[in-house]
Amino acid sequence: MNDWLIALIKVIFIWSWTLLIATLMTWVERRGSALIQDRLGPNRAGPFGLFQPLADGVKLFTKEDIVPAKANRALFFLGPVLFALPAFSAYAVVPFGDKIVIGGKEILLQVADVSVGFLYIVAIGSMAVYGIVVGGWGSNNKYSILGGLRSTAQLISYEVPWGLALLAAVMVYGSFSLREIALAQQGTFLGVLPNWGVFKQPLGFLLFIVAAYAEGNRVPFDLPEAESEIVAGYHTEYGSMRLGLYLFGEYVNMYTLSALMVTLYFGAWHLPYVDMSQWLGPVSYGIASFLVFFLKVAFFLWLFVWVRWTVPRFRYDQVMGLGWRSLIPLALINLFITALCIQLSV
Questions:
Q1: CA pair distance 302, 308, nearest whole angstrom
Q2: Dist. CA 204–CA 331, nearest whole Å
Q3: Among residues 152, 137, 127, 89, which one has the least CA distance to residue 235?
Q4: Alpha-carbon separation of residue 203 from 155, 190, 338 (angstroms)
Q5: What pLDDT does 105 receive?
Q6: What's the whole-number mean pLDDT along residues 302-319?
Q7: First to last CA, the chain
Q8: Domain spans of the chain, in order of start
Q9: pLDDT digits (tens, 9 = 90+) for 218-229
Q10: Per the UniProt record, which residue ranges are transmembrane (predicted)?
Q11: How many alpha carbons lie under 13 Å from residue 196 in its C-beta half-sphere?
């Protein structure tokens, strides 16, 4: 099998899989909120309401696409695309399993194993804010513009501790490659604990997960689209599939952030104290590594939902204060401690 054909199959698979997960997450979000609030949630379209995302998709595709009279049409159309594309592109460097051997050929379960995967994630992740700002400004709506400005301030503020937490993990593993970081987490740490990043970087993980919620505009950091304050923020004027791109981009971003957390801090596809490659064949091992990785990701996806329907929204001054007065100093302290520990262990 040609390398270009393998790469094409992996791209098609991961895009289709990501779309499927984003679609299912709309159902999980609604059923999860219903479970937490002691109500039923969607239960009419198919068994347990599983066809509700399909019904929502048909509705979004068939609704009239209305453009506000005084909106900047070019920016109004460009905003959702600029938001969705980085979300779909970021997952390209995240390994979703170890490897699978088919016909004697070893295939890595990763679209692109680049040596600067960490830098790629940071660069692509920072581009999503342009979609929010452009969409908010192009709508020519005061609530949309306010949502775009809030998003700019929030993402800039929280990308600093997010990037510093990632940098500390890179210092520990000595590589920018996400695959090499994942491979380094096999075995045990201090002879007892799993050799996972969360045990080597506990503070770094806490900083990362808090900043990830802010990066994904999720409660309690959903100030850019706070319904009780600014209607729906940057996508107030959007409908039809343009709104769908914003909503889908948010869920894809959740999936990418969860996969990144698993890759850096929770051993990627590795099970604690178990080496699956010694017990399984080359094909079954590849499938098992993918399933283990996805189950870990599924936990963090559910955590996103759980937090949204449990924790109240912060005030804007609290969001900014947490980022600049707490997370950034802690991230710098964590970076200093990490460098000190590495130096002492040399």
A1: 10
A2: 7
A3: 137
A4: 20, 18, 10
A5: 81
A6: 87
A7: 44
A8: 3-345
A9: 878 877 676 667
A10: 6-28, 74-94, 114-134, 155-176, 196-214, 251-271, 283-307, 327-345
A11: 20
Three-state DSSP at 219 gives: coil
- pLDDT value of residue 346: 63
Between CA 298 and CA 201 the distance in angstroms is 22
Q: pLDDT tier at 90 (50, 70, 90 boundaries)?
A: confident
Q: Quickly state the pLDDT bin for 262 (edges 50, 70, 90).
A: very high
Q: In angstroms, rounded to a whole number, what is the distance separating the alpha carbons of residues 239 and 63?
A: 8
User: How many helices (H) does the chain have, and how many strands (E)?
Assistant: 14, 4
32 token code pair: 């999860």
Using the predicted structure, report yes or no on whether residue 190 has a pLDDT greater than 80.
Answer: no
- The SS3 call for residue 189 is strand
The amino acid sitting at 272 is: P
Taken in order 90, 91, 93, 94, the sign of the CA dihedral is positive
- Give residue 286's identity as a one-letter amino acid code: G
Give the closest residue to 110 by CA, choosing from 248, 233, 11. Answer: 11
Closest CA to 221 of 188, 254, 173, 263: 254
| pLDDT at residue 235 greater than cutoff 80 | no
Q: How high does pLDDT run on average in the chain? A: 85
SS (H, E, C) 281-313: CHHHHHHHHHHHHHHHHHHHHHHHHHHHCCCCC
172 half-sphere exposure, CB direction, 13 A CA radius: 28
Give the helix/strand (H/E) hosting 338.
helix 328-345
How big is the chain by its Cα radius of gyration, in Å?
A: 21
Tell me if the pTM is above 0.70. yes
- For residues 281, 282, 287, 289, the Cα torsion angle rounded to the nearest 10 degrees is 90
Residue 76's CB: how many other CB atoms inside 10 A?
Answer: 21
Under 8 Å CB-to-CB from 179, ≥6 apart: which residues? 95, 108, 110, 113, 117
Mind spelling out the 3-state secondary structure of 244-282? HHHHHHHHHHHHHHHHHHHHHHCCCCCECCECHHHCCCH
